[in-house]
Amino acid sequence: MGDGFKIFELVKKVLFTDFVKGLSITLGYNVSRSITHRYPDEEKWIPYRRFRGLHTLNKDEHGRELCVACELCSKACPTQCITVIPMEDDTGRGIADRVAKVWKVDLVRCLFCGYCEDACPTRAVRLGREYELACIDSRCNVRQREELLHPQPTPEAFEGGVVARATFIRKKRSIKVKADLMNTKKRSI
Amino acid sequence: MMPDISIILETLLIVVKAFIVTMVLFVMPLPLTWLERKIAGHIQVRLGPWRVGPHGVLQPFADMIKLILKEDILPYKADRFLFVLAPVLSMVPAFAVYAAIPFGESFKIPGIEREMTLYLTDMNVGVLYILAVSGLGVYGMIFGGWASNSKYALLGGLRSSAQMISYEIALSFASIGVVMMANSLSLVDIVKAQGGSLLNWNIFYLPVGPIWFAVFMIGGFAESSRIPFDLPEDEGTLSSGFHTEYSGMKFAFFMLAEYIAMVTISVLSVIMFFGGWNAPFNIPLPIPPIFWFVGKVAFFIYVFMWVRFTLPRYRYDQLMNIGWKILIPVSLVNILLTGFMRIG
Fold it and tell me: d(Cα B182, Cα B193) in Å, to the nearest integer?
């Protein structure tokens, strides 16, 4: 730390070099693109396949329900939010003659751990990529079998991890953000 | 006896001009708050206001409605008279400054053969008037802090008075150099003395010009109590300083005064250091001088916001050190140097 160093430091202070450095960094950020997702108006994040969102009940290629109402999912559930009531059915609704009369999940209690899909012997229960679960009525927190059997808007084959163009749909009873899966882009963060 | 028709017209013109200037200043904080939040957003790689109107341009109106509808709280045991007076006291000097600020030279109105000046008055003590009147604004802050019956507000008021006293000196000394260059305190004369080209601007009067400007700008940041010198409203330690207890329109008046102070400092630095409405070089196109003036002022307003989102706040002792130990000696030496240069 000689005198030369001290003089150098003084010159740096007089010329405001630190300020200039800081200001140039913020100017660089000011002109760079924002990383904000314009959700829900224009864009929507499509999660990766590993994402654990709303449950789905799958069907096989002939349209038969895979669920055999073995109740393993409700046994495995740490919060006991899944209720399964089995019944006998030989009309070909399911893959076996035992199908679920009631299969419902209480989303308020569910912690989306994925134990139910691990426990399922027929891969009927999967946690999908649907994450907009808010609604205006507390009854809709319990999702019934009929609702979960509908295929989710993001198909299993879709890779995910992208931002899709989306439209914001406002209805009287609910709001929805509909993503356009054909028009997506990766975004570095 | 009826007064002369031209005197009536002259008076009417001045009233109309004063009205226009006041209205513009009243409306000015609306785009400035939007701009500030937008710049904050983009510097932090966000979007800023977006939802109200296209690109959030209607956000200031939403804020205005909110401020008008908010409950006007008067704190328990507050000094009622001073509490109401303080926002007005801080706002009126901010407006009064503009009586002496020129926005351009006089020009002939086409059609009728009349001279029209783009300033309210060309005071022969313009610089002095502006420095004196803008210094009065601090009374609003002190009274607001005192009348609120709150520790935070009182500390904020004390800090603001100490800060204003320290930096007013440096600010005035920095403007003395400019006055020496133009041999006049009138702002119109100061701008005229910088006419011609870029090299006649005071900032390029080497080596003292940049030092004047640096001292003036640092003092200006402190005078308008913006970051990095916003000690009077330091959120971290004083919750929000002298206007902690204010809400609704009274709070809006304080904000108005702060934004107008920022515009004033930008306008002054353009007039005193960057040649006012003079073009930087000869352009054959007929560009009106007001364009250059507004452009330069807009740039300085951006600089104010840019600095706000770059630098952290100074500590209180650092603030005092910069003011008394650095800025005042530097500006004094600078006046001496300028004097020698003017002789030579």
Answer: 6
Q: Is A136 on the interface with B (CB under 8 A)?
A: no
Chain B partners within 8 Å of A22 (Cβ): 310-311
On whether any CB of chain B is under 8 Å from the CB of A151, the answer is no
**Assigned CATH topology for domain A52-150:** Alpha-Beta Plaits (3.30.70)
Q: CA-based angle B286:B287:B288, to the nearest 5? A: 110
Q: Which chain B residues are Cβ-neighbours of A38 within 8 angstroms?
A: 47, 50
Report how far residue A117's alpha carbon sits from residue A74's, in angstroms, rounded to the nearest whole number: 11
Q: What does the domain layout of chain A look like in residue ranges? A: 1-32, 33-48+159-189, 52-150
Amino acid type, B54:
P
Cα gap B299→B196, rounded to integer Å: 21
Helix (H, G, I), strand (E, B) or coil at A103: strand
Tell the residue number behind the tokens 């009126």, with chain if given: B92
Residue partners of A17: CB distance under 8 A and separation at least 6? none
Q: What is the pLDDT of residues B242-254, one digit of tens each?
A: 888 888 888 888 8
Task: Kindly list the residues from chain B whose CB atom is less than 8 angstroms away from the CB atom of residue A40.
Answer: none
Residues with Cβ < 8 Å from B194, sequence gap 6 or more?
Answer: B182, B200, B201, B202, B275, B276, B278
Give the pLDDT score at B48: 86
Measured CA to CA, the distance from residue A56 to residue A144 in angstroms comes to 10
The CB density around residue B19, as the number of other CB atoms within 10 Å, is: 10
Any B CB within 8 A of A34 CB: yes
Q: pTM score, two decimals?
A: 0.83
Predicted pLDDT of residue B197 = 78
Q: What is the mean pLDDT of each run of 10 residues along chain A (189 residues)?
A: 80 84 90 85 86 90 88 92 90 87 91 91 89 82 88 82 87 82 75
- For A13, the 3-state DSSP assignment is helix
- Which phi-psi region, left, alpha or beta, contains residue B77 (left: φ > 0; alpha: ψ -120 to 50)? left
Which pLDDT score, from 0 to 100, does residue A1 have?
59
Cβ neighbour number for residue A23 with a 10 Å cutoff:
18
Instruction: Output B96-101 pairs: Cβ under 8 A, ≥24 positions apart.
Output: B96/B133, B97/B130, B97/B133, B97/B134, B97/B264, B98/B21, B98/B22, B98/B25, B98/B264, B99/B18, B99/B123, B99/B129, B100/B126, B100/B129, B100/B130, B100/B187, B101/B126, B101/B130, B101/B187, B101/B264, B101/B267, B101/B268, B101/B271
In sequence order, what are the beta bridge partners of A170? A175
Q: What is the pLDDT, as a whole number, of residue A84?
A: 93
pLDDT at B114 over 80: no
Is ipTM over 0.90? no
What string of DSSP letters covers B182-225? Answer: HT-S-HHHHHHHT-SSGGGSGGGSTTHHHHHHHHHHHHHHHHTT
Q: Residue B23: is its pLDDT beyond 60?
A: yes
| Cβ-based neighbours of B33, under 8 Å, separated by 6 or more | B59, B60, B63, B255, B259
